[in-house]
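Hi all, long-time lurker, first post. I run a small reading group and we've been trying to get comfortable going from sequence to structure in the token notation. Rather than ask abstract questions, I figured I'd post a concrete chain and ask someone more experienced to write out its structure so we can walk through it together at our next meeting. Sequence below, copied exactly:
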Amino acid sequence: MKPNIGTIDRVVRIVLGVLLIGFGLYQKAWWGAIGVIPIATAFLQWCPVYLPFHFSSYTEADTQ
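-- Answer (accepted) --
Happy to help. Here is the structure in token form:
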């Protein structure tokens, strides 16, 4: 898998995932588990939704 998620995109996904999980726990709702998806894609640096649109926020500067 070729990376298609850049640094800023990763940070946003991690924050969003943590917020979703936290809010789901606060509400005692199962949908908070959806927060795992943005966290997983952030750590994998690959998003399958970007593929059909040929989009990538990844740059060579993100390899540092």
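A couple of things your group might point at:
The two ends are 18 Å apart (CA to CA).
The helical segments are 7-27, 36-44.
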